[in-house]
Write a structure and sequence with these properties.
five-stranded parallel sheet, 19 helices, chromophore, mainly alpha, 6% strand, deoxyribodipyrimidine photo-lyase activity, Crypto/Photolyase_N_sf, Rossmann fold, 48% helix, 3 domains
């Protein structure tokens, strides 16, 4: 009698380059996919609204693709430590495979499940799939984790080359018996009252096929312009792959090797190297998070705990969230975020700097808003990058670096294409007045930072 294998999908919603799925196929038994919506385990951070919208679409796509290949995707809601053993019992499964996660709480959950299932006699294995280099493999000469990007990147260059991606699973044998599964719609991942996701639907198509198509499009059409135009707010040179990587519709191995194949020479090679450095920055964020799993709530640089944040001005926070600050690039960026679920990377830095340094609002409030609004919000990059702007994080921007939104606008949106699309009222004869004076608030921020720098 067959003992099926369970492939526990998490942030790896793909059939290509999926080591857990490959291991199940090699076992030569029926396979069932499983996704657990775990919002009950202690310490698990509930995903934000825009991310929930994306998850719905990506799970629907994965379920369809597994069905086409002969298997099925079981959906269950609850604490993973309870759900997974229950599904094992339901199926009489003999093996469980998954790809590793790197958040602190998630690692503890996975380790507990692995121990329990192995004690019950099951084959259980986990794999490296979502980072090129696992966080314990890149260390300084003193055997410590890196806290500065440049030496981290140099160390990565000396590591063995990332393995080539595995081929897509074309056939996935399923079980003959029906297995109880939640209906995806019952999870309420899509907004209804109100339905604020119209802009997301206009902008994105979640799922692995669309992810592969976008990677091909970027490499064929946009990679050559990446180095020259990536910082332009309205430019088309950005990859738009961040949500694909966040949800694992693409693996970093696919992106890495496909980019190398398109590297070419001259300006094209420069662009390819610049783009791959962003993949390494993503790795760096996850490595830092692995060693500092509380990065979303605790300053990485603990001396920053002494920063003199004033009492939260909720009106100022809401004005920033709504894109009504009276500062063109900030308002354009916040509106792009709300409509599309993403924001140009440089604009993310400008809007974050404005909140933290011009409004003197704790970075954690901004991080939470982005967490709720970004389709690509992941547990490493989002808090890591907010702490970078704040000056409290690893390899942080110098405390005296305060992005001037008007200077950034002139340099990276010289023809006002970005502002015209997202905040056209700033091109009228009477544009809005900024909510604060940029020069005065910059000085106030530098005075506050000096308190931390000099020990208060």
């Amino acid at each position: 009698m067959p003992s099926p294998s369970i492939v526990w999908f998490r942030d790896d919603l793909r059939l290509t380059d999926n080591p857990a799925l490959r291991a199940a196929l090699e076992r030569d038994e029926p396979i069932v996919g499983l996704y657990v919506l775990d919002e009950e385990s202690d310490g698990v951070r509930e995903i934000g609204g825009a991310a929930r919208w994306w998850l719905h679409g990506s799970l629907a796509s994965l379920g369809e693709r597994l069905n086409e290949r002969g298997s099925t995707l079981i959906l269950r809601r609850g604490a993973a430590s309870k759900v997974l053993p229950a599904v094992v019992d339901d199926l009489g499964a003999g093996a469980v495979f998954w790809n590793r996660r790197y958040g602190g709480v998630e690692r503890e959950i996975d380790a507990g499940i692995k121990e329990k299932l192995r004690d019950d006699g099951l084959t259980v294995a986990s794999f490296a799939a979502n980072l090129l280099y696992e966080p314990w493999t890149v260390r300084t000469g003193a055997d410590k984790p890196y806290g500065i990007y440049s030496p981290f990147a140099r160390a990565v260059q000396k590591m063995p080359a990332p393995r080539p991606p595995m081929p897509e699973a074309r056939k996935v044998p399923g079980v003959s018996a029906s297995v109880d599964s939640d209906d995806l719609s019952s999870w309420g991942l899509l907004p209804t009252k109100p339905d604020w996701a119209g802009g997301l639907r206009e902008t994105w198509e979640p799922g692995e096929p669309a992810a592969k198509a976008r990677l091909t499009e970027f490499l064929d059409d946009d990679l050559g312009d990446y180095a020259k135009y990536r910082d332009e707010f309205a430019g088309g040179a950005t990859s738009n792959l961040s949500p694909r990587l966040r949800w694992g519709e693409l693996s970093p191995y696919q992106v890495w090797h496909d980019t190398l194949e398109h590297r070419g020479s001259g300006e094209h090679a420069k662009s390819a190297s610049g783009f791959l450095s962003e993949i390494v920055w993503r790795e760096f964020a996850w490595h830092v998070t692995y060693h500092s799993p509380d990065i979303a709530t605790v300053n990485w640089r603990r001396n920053f705990d002494a920063f003199p944040w004033p009492k939260l001005n909720r009106d100022h926070l809401e004005t920033w969230q709504q894109g009504k600050t009276g500062v063109a690039v900030v308002d354009a960026g916040m509106r792009q975020l709300w409509h599309t679920g993403v924001m140009h990377n440089r604009v993310r830095m400008v809007t974050a700097s404005f909140l933290i340094k011009n409004l003197l609002i704790d970075w954690r409030h901004g991080e939470q808003w982005f967490w709720d609004c970004l389709v690509d919000a992941d547990a490493a990059s989002n808090p890591f990058n907010w702490q970078w702007v704040a000056g409290s994080g690893a390899d942080a921007a110098p405390y005296f670096r305060v992005f001037n939104p008007e200077t950034q606008r002139k340099k990276f949106d010289p023809h006002d294409e970005y502002v015209r699309e997202w905040a056209p009222e700033f091109l009228d004869d009477g544009p809005p007045e900024p909510m604060v004076d940029l020069g005065e608030t910059r000085k106030r921020a530098l005075d506050a930072y000096a308190e931390v720098r000099h020990g208060g």
